[in-house]
Structure formats: structure tokens, C-alpha cells
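Dear colleagues,

As part of the handover before I leave the project, I'm documenting each prediction I ran so the next person doesn't have to rerun anything. This entry is a single chain, and its sequence is reproduced below.
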Amino acid sequence: MNAHVQEALNEIAKESGAVVPCETCGNNYIRAHDGDAESKAYAMATNAWKDGNFRSASREEILAAMKDVIIDANNECPSCG
């Protein structure tokens, strides 16, 4: 995925609540482990794809990249542990 797509998917993950700021330091994002928020992230990514925001990739590629963003998010804050 190119940097534009990656950044857009990171923002979708934040906006949907699939990743949230650390409650202690607020400096790092961690995985929320919230199924509803993750479903919302996939729906938002699909809608962005339908709106033509990801012309360089197929819908399947965007959803796979969204999954990677969510799964790759830290479970614990790297600063706070």
C-alpha cells in the first residue's frame, strides 16, 4: 500500500474507535479490541473505496490493509507498558 492509503486507513481506524489513544500518556494508539468499532472501520474503509479515495487498490486489498492496521496496532502502550 502506498503512504497515502496507509495514512488514510490509520485515520479511519482512529475515527472508528478501532484504535484508541493510551489512557495514561495519550501519545500512542493501541488496539481497542472492540468488535463494533472494528466493523465500523471496515465499513468506513469500504465507503471511502466506493467514493474513489483508493483508486490504486481493489476493495479486497483495502479491506486486507485495514485488517493489517487493526491487527498490527499495539495491545499495550509501548511507552507505558
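The mean pLDDT is 95. DSSP finds three helices and two strands in the chain.

All the best with the project,
I.
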